[in-house]
Design goal:
alpha/beta; 9 helices; Rossmann fold; seven-stranded parallel beta sheet; 270 residues
Length: 270
């Protein structure tokens, strides 16, 4: 096989969860450009349809809740009915802290005060959601003896949050990165290793892609400080993960499973 053919996803079906988000849209675009038929799934059916329309090339939009087994079974059935196969699953759906309201951020984000309801909700989506999507959609891959599952991790699944990044230029802590997000992403990495070992004999590869921080209209001081402590001296652009995603999805990584591919500008090496 020629090198270019290794990255070709023509004829394959790829499901991307959290497809309407910033990175989800880029993941969908990358897979479509590599030749895959993309199924964009998220909670909002209108947003899913919009993503599919933007992609063209036979892309489909189908709403699903990653925490609801019945919803995911319906998704799997629709994918197989419409495309006849399921080759790639990108477990991208996740939620992050939502306590950055200036009026409440400091107190709510402290570990001592962090609300149990937020802890449970994040674990439900970020960990249980990955488990259920892999169990229900990945089972079809294992049945036919092929497939690639890519779980989206985070640098904070590898290293602890640097709380100093969330201090303004006057040295005031605006909020704290909570314990739940790194806990959830660490669990995703452990689950990736488990599933790679479990489904390896069935021909299903399971890897993680861990992005660094993505620039997305954050405060200027945060962008500057994040860039300062990152060897490549910038935050990521949403497009920076496209190549890594296609590598893990395609035959270019045919002998790679159980890995965590860090695309973080070197953030975790310092």
């Amino acid at each position: 096989m020629k090198l270019a053919e290794c990255f070709d996803l023509s004829g394959k079906t790829a499901v991307v969860t959290g497809a309407a988000g910033l990175l989800g849209r880029q993941h969908c675009r990358a897979l479509a450009e590599a030749g895959a038929r993309v199924v964009a799934t998220d909670l909002d059916p209108v947003a899913c349809a919009e993503v599919a329309e933007e992609l063209g090339t036979g892309a489909l939009g189908f709403a699903a809740d990653v925490t609801d087994p019945d919803s995911l079974r319906a998704l799997a059935g629709e994918v197989l009915r419409r495309t006849g196969r399921l080759d790639i699953l990108v477990n991208n759906a996740a939620i992050n802290d939502r306590v950055e309201n200036p009026a409440t951020a400091m107190e709510l984000s402290r570990f001592e005060n962090y609300p149990l309801a937020l802890w449970k909700r994040c674990l439900e989506v970020n960990v249980t959601g990955v488990f259920l999507c892999s169990q229900i959609l990945g089972a079809e891959m294992a049945r036919v003896g092929r497939g690639s599952i890519i779980n989206v991790g985070s640098t904070y699944g590898v290293v602890a949050p640097d709380q100093s990044l969330y201090r303004d230029p006057e040295g005031r802590q605006r909020f704290y990165k909570s314990a739940v997000y790194p806990t959830a992403k660490g669990a995703v990495l452990a689950f990736t290793r488990f599933l790679a070992a479990y489904w390896g004999p069935a021909g299903v590869r399971v890897n993680a892609l861990s992005p660094g921080g993505v620039e997305n209209h954050q405060e200027e001081y945060f962008i500057a400080e994040y860039a300062r402590r990152t060897p490549l001296k910038r935050m990521a652009a949403p497009s920076d993960f496209m190549g890594a995603l296609i590598f893990l999805a395609s035959d270019a990584s045919a002998y790679v499973t159980g890995a965590n591919l860090l695309v973080d500008g070197g953030f975790t090496v310092v």
